[in-house]
UniProtKB/TrEMBL annotation:
Span of domain Carbohydrate kinase PfkB: 5-277
Domain of life: Bacteria
UniProt-listed Gene3D superfamilies: 3.40.1190.20
GO cellular component, one term: cytoplasm
One record GO biological process: D-ribose catabolic process
Note describing how the cofactor binds: Requires a divalent cation, most likely magnesium in vivo, as an electrophilic catalyst to aid phosphoryl group transfer. It is the chelate of the metal and the nucleotide that is the actual substrate.
Descriptive protein name: Ribokinase
């Protein structure tokens, strides 16, 4: 089972002819909204990848529909607290090439208490996964608690903060980050990804695929070709499918292959959590 300490956001989408520059006022060509946040995206992805997922998070009084949406997508929600802080939200502008800029309001996501996190993890079993991203507070407490309970800890290093990662050194079993984040981490620590003391590091490389670095090997994987319409949520989809596949007992190479397929299909869709593909869609698309 996967316990995901993660953000829950209301995503506002604006399609624009190009990403705005400083001081520029730009009329959007369309507007939409949906469920998002790296945490929610990964919970939905993991659930659609066949894992049982319980989300640990917080929403405000304006976010009840986000909890209901997560339930619809197969995510367990008893450990999503409702508090007197607005639900997090993100304003996402997307250009004609599918690239994006995002302005994030953290809101309830950074008001989690140790009581909320601890109550959830007391229900976990040894061998379960704790999945985290850097859009909530309470990560160090959650990782220490999970480690003491015999859980495996997976961490997606986004939004990137070197201190947030180094605070978790010695507690992370699987680190997922993109090429830019890997470079920033190496600059901050003076250590390459393979020298961090983490059992498995996966570096995503966008259209070039990804790289898996373990204590003994370094393996590159090619991406599956895709015509990108919107890259928002593709990395979250990759991570959710990766952790779900490992939780279901697949080896790392098979898990990465499935995650790459999910990510390549995700970039052909506009949106975030609401359009993440499921296993059947992936099997139908790739003939697997």
């Amino acid at each position: 089972m996967i316990w995901n300490l993660g953000s829950i956001n209301i995503d506002n989408f604006y399609e624009v002819p190009h990403l705005p520059s400083a001081g520029e006022t730009l009329a959007a060509q369309s507007y939409g909204f949906g469920l998002g946040g790296k945490g929610a995206n990964m919970s939905v992805a993991a659930a659609r990848a066949g894992a049982r997922v319980s989300h640990i998070g917080a929403i405000g009084h304006n976010g009840q529909w986000t909890r209901e949406r997560l339930m619809e997508y197969g995510v367990d929600t008893p450990h999503i607290a409702k508090i007197d802080v607005p639900t997090g939200h993100a304003n996402i502008v997307i250009d004609a090439q599918g690239e994006n800029n995002i302005v994030l309001f953290q809101g309830a996501n950074v008001e989690l208490t140790e009581a909320i996190i601890g109550a959830a993890l007391t229900e976990a079993s040894p061998g379960d996964f704790l999945l985290m991203q850097n859009e909530t507070n309470g990560q160090a407490y959650a990782a220490s608690t999970a480690q003491a309970l015999g859980l495996r800890v997976a961490y997606a290093a986004a939004p990137f903060d070197a201190d947030a990662i180094t605070d978790l050194f010695g507690k992370i079993d699987l680190l997922v980050l993109n090429e830019v984040e890997a470079s920033q981490l190496e600059e901050a620590t003076g250590k390459s990804a393979g020298a961090l003391g983490i059992a498995d590091v996966v570096i995503t490389l966008g259209a070039q695929g990804c790289k898996w670095i373990s204590s003994t090997t370094e393996t590159c994987f090619d991406a599956y070709p895709a015509e990108a319409l919107d890259t928002t949520g593709a990395g979250d989809t990759f991570t959710g499918f990766l952790v779900a596949a490992l939780d279901r007992g697949l080896d790392m190479e098979a898990a990465i292959d499935l995650a790459l397929k999910a990510g390549s299909l995700m970039v052909t869709r506009r949106g975030t959590a609401d359009v993440i593909p499921d296993l059947k869609e992936i099997q139908d698309h790739f003939g697997a």
